[in-house]
Write a structure and sequence with these properties.
- By secondary structure, this protein is mainly alpha-helical.
- The protein contains 21 helices and 6 strands.
């Protein structure tokens, strides 16, 4: 038992500022001199910690076989072509403690080193103390947001403090604190030395503020059914913030891998590893083709979508009969150095359109909606004025009736291939009307806790798992997270 408790202290209760126990650097690749190994010195090299934490975002929209890919399967962005257990809803369990002992711990150490008078002076060699802390707080919020939206309740308020096995926090508590963290961090920036190791925005504090405020919009809007009053207030505050939000492609949060040992994840999967277990689902290609949506030419390698949720035998039959089935992303968009887009301007514009449709703001819903779709077509390299004009005036697309549903569909499309966000949007709005895998009746509503939780933190795990109990037992994949109503 002693060994298990100590391991949990390392994974979830991390609070020590010892540099020799910083997170794993296997994702760093070659980013030049910012990659100095902090384990080689007793002085904190916070630029390397930041680079490592950011490099983990390279697979932030897809991680072959991981929880993000399963989110994409549940959202029906992807279909499995051979081993179809996940898309046929066999229970998928994933441990999240690696985030606590890895990238989130690196971010916490950046905060610790820049806050502690004993180390702040040395840490300041890599950028203003306040700016480093602000960036780390924003990234921590982003990581925790994706984790809680996937699992629901998770360790949060007592995590990273070295207090041992700790209780899970309710998602409502986590959401409110995420908004606080993002607000406080965005006003913490100063005019000091540019932060080093920032491979996302190169230390541009203006872009970090827009990134933080855009996340605030998304978090607030996701509360629209469970706490609309708070959601409306927080959305308006984020939109009015002097730092602004992402509203142009130049401000998109896009991580560009340098190539070599550090590659775009889809490139690595299809070109380097040469696997073929995942395809663009027929759900996606059917929706695109039925509306003459030009993005069909960029979302995948062909317009032959793979039927979702087939049995293994049927999947093999289909794959053999349709060898041109669509691989994820058109090949020119999954090159070695193709960017991973975390937040794009069209996603923010659609969030603003939905808020306007809800009556949360006085912004022009139609203008935002049309601009968002045009921005999306442009980002995917398929914009043609004549084709776009025809697309946007179709009864199934043009606003006027069923506005929330139409905006929700465009949001689901705009997040592709980010399954974590697409799955969350589907759970919140029920758009598109996804059909469960053949012969099954329900689509999972969350990722279930991994075995480390029941083994290393059994009492607190049991309490959290009980919140998601159904006829199949506790910790059900069909239990709903807080905002999923």
């Amino acid at each position: 038992m002693k060994t298990k408790i100590n391991k949990y202290l390392i994974m979830v209760g991390l609070g020590s500022a010892l540099l020799t126990t910083t997170g794993c650097f296997k994702h760093l690749g070659d980013y030049g001199t910012t990659n100095n190994n902090p384990n080689a010195t007793t002085s904190p090299i916070t630029s390397a910690l930041l680079t490592n934490a950011l490099s983990g975002l390279n697979n932030g929209v897809w991680d072959q076989g991981g929880f993000r890919t399963v989110n994409g399967l549940y959202a029906q962005y992807f279909a499995e072509t051979q081993y179809t257990d996940a898309s046929r809803y066999s229970k998928q369990t994933f441990n999240f403690d690696g985030f606590y002992s890895g990238v989130i711990y690196d971010l916490q150490n950046i905060i610790n080193y820049n806050s502690d008078p004993a180390t702040a002076g040395t840490a300041a060699n890599f950028g203003s103390n306040k700016n480093q802390i602000a960036i780390a707080r924003i990234l921590k919020a982003y990581y925790f947001w994706t984790l809680t939206d996937s699992w629901g309740d998770i360790p949060y308020t007592q995590a990273l403090k070295g207090v041992g096995a700790i209780a899970y926090d309710g998602q409502d508590v986590i959401y409110k604190d995420l908004l606080k963290e993002l607000k406080e961090a965005s006003v913490q920036f100063d005019a000091g030395l540019t932060v080093q190791g920032d491979i996302l925005f190169a230390g541009n504090t203006g872009k970090w503020k827009k990134f933080a405020n855009s996340i605030r919009l998304f978090v607030a809007l996701r509360m629209s059914k469970v706490d609309p009053a708070t959601g409306k207030t927080e959305f308006a505050a984020a939109l009015a913030d002097a730092g602004g939000v992402i509203d142009a492609a130049a401000d998109n949060a896009a991580l560009v891998p340098p190539g070599g040992v550090y590659q775009n994840t889809f490139y690595n999967y299809y070109t380097v590893v040469q696997r073929k277990d995942y395809a663009v689902s027929k759900t996606v290609t059917d929706i695109l083709s039925s509306n003459n949506d030009e993005r069909i030419n960029a979302f995948g390698s062909s317009n032959v979508g793979f039927p979702y949720g087939l049995t293994r035998a049927d999947a093999v039959i289909f794959a053999n009969a349709n060898v041109t089935w669509s691989r994820i992303l058109e090949p020119s968009r999954r090159k070695e150095t193709s960017p991973t887009v975390l937040i794009a301007a069209e996603q923010v514009k659609l969030a603003r359109a939905e808020a306007a449709a809800l009556g949360w703001t006085a912004e022009n819903m139609i203008t935002l909606y049309n601009d968002a779709i045009q921005t999306s077509w442009t980002r995917w390299g398929v914009y043609d004025a004549t084709k776009f004009a025809a697309y946007i005036t179709q009864p199934a697309i043009v606003l006027g009736t069923n506005n929330i549903q139409k905006i929700a569909l465009q949001k689901w499309l705009a997040y592709y291939p980010d399954g974590t966000q697409g799955y969350a949007e589907w759970r919140k709005n029920g758009i598109p009307a996804l059909i469960p895998a053949p012969g099954l009746t329900s689509i999972p509503r969350r990722i279930t806790y991994g075995p480390n939780e029941s083994q290393l933190n059994p009492l607190n795990y049991a309490t959290a798992a009980a919140k998601y109990q159904d006829a199949t037992g506790p910790d059900s994949q069909f239990g709903k997270v807080w905002w999923d109503k």
